[in-house]
Amino acid sequence: NSPVHKQHRTITYLKVAEGCSNMCSFCNIPALRGNFSSRTVNSIITEISNLIEKGVKEINLISQDISSYGKDFNDNTGLATLLKSISEIEGDFWIRLFYCYPNSFTDETMEVIADDNRFCRYLDMPFQHISDSVLKKMNRKITRKGIEATMARVRSVLPDVAWRTTFIVGFPTETEKDYEELVEFVSEGHFQHLGIFLYSDEDNIRSSRYGDPVQFAVKEERKNRLMEIQQKISMKHNQKMVGSVQQVLVGGFSPETDLLLEGRNQFQGPEVDGVVYINEGTASSTGFQQVEITEAHEYDLVGKILS
User: 40-61, pLDDT tens digit by residue?
Assistant: First the structure.
């Protein structure tokens, strides 16, 4: 029972807030869980410190809208405050941010991330759509111009960031023209990772007043076309990494086969993105290893441990 099998022990998710105050028309989380409510900085720091002492190497910060962390305290505490405090913790670990709402992601937050390379160069920022008319009906409170401006700001501070985003297809007011605008935007190649959800109509969401006119088969077709476009883009992003040496968090043997070790680099989120398969070199235990990337595939990379 080798230590490299204890994959789950090195990675964890940590919730920094409950609820949501964004009121997107397709979502009933505010009704179910109430308004956005942040945990205190101290409680989070204590928990992270304990996890690191126990040997956790990657902490994924999650909430319905991590960009809004601290706003409800009304004392200038924000996500940047939390990240600065995390930065003061000693040790070798990764911090990864999930679900950064684009409207309130600040320059200060980006600068804190840029100053500490234990913050993964990885940003999960769901945009949900790119057509202004759909964004408006979704009550996203942002326009295409605003999304593009946010992306440009992030790139200027974190040029090597890997983007993950999600889009919803088949929103009741989405026309062919709206969808083609989304296709064109995805085709520009911004994202390493992309999730596509089919709009689902529920009684207790505000967008249900528009009905659900887009047929399921059309939603599926729209999703599949976007994913095919994205596959080629992901492949290009991955090919750029061949020949580079990267820090990889090795989690143990691959569930596919005991002949390969499996890990992830900082640009791959757990459970949602691809992995790095290691077919040369040995790791005596889980943890960070220097790995030379030797092959790229649509979602996964292959590499060898440099001893």
Answer: 999 999 999 999 999 899 999 9
d(C-alpha 37, C-alpha 34), whole Å: 8
In the numeric block, which tokens belong to residue 62?
A: 């999650």
Max CA distance (Å), the chain: 60
What's the pLDDT score for residue 202? 82
Q: How many CA atoms lie within 13 A of 53 on its CB side?
A: 6
- Helix or strand or coil: residue 60? strand
Cα end-to-end distance, the chain, whole Å? 23
The encoded tokens of residue 112 equal 């804190």
Contact 161, 155 (CB under 8 A): yes
Q: Which of 2, 79, 93 is nearest to 51 (CA)?
A: 93
Residue type, 64: Q
Of 167, 100, 85, the residue nearest 127 (C-alpha): 167
* Residue 241 token pair: 């990494």
**What does the alpha-carbon distance between residue 180 and residue 193 come to, in Å, rounded to a whole number?**
20
pLDDT tens for each residue of 22-45:
888 888 887 788 888 999 999 999
> What is the DSSP pairing of strand 301-305 with strand 287-296?
antiparallel
Torsion on CA atoms 232, 171, 153, 194, rounded to nearest 10: -30
Which 3-state string (H, E, C) describes 284-297? CCCEEEEEEEEEEC
- % the chain with pLDDT above 90: 72
Q: Give the list of residues 6+ apart from residue 269 with CB closer than 8 angstroms, or none.
A: 60, 96, 98, 122, 124, 164, 193
Tokens found for residue 72: 């409800």
Task: Show the CA angle centred on residue 221, arms to residues 220 and 225, nearest 5°.
Answer: 120
Reported as type and span, the H/E element at residue 112 is helix 107-115
- Model-level pTM? 0.89
Q: Is 217 exposed, middle or buried (0-12, 13-18, 19+ CB in 10 A)?
A: exposed
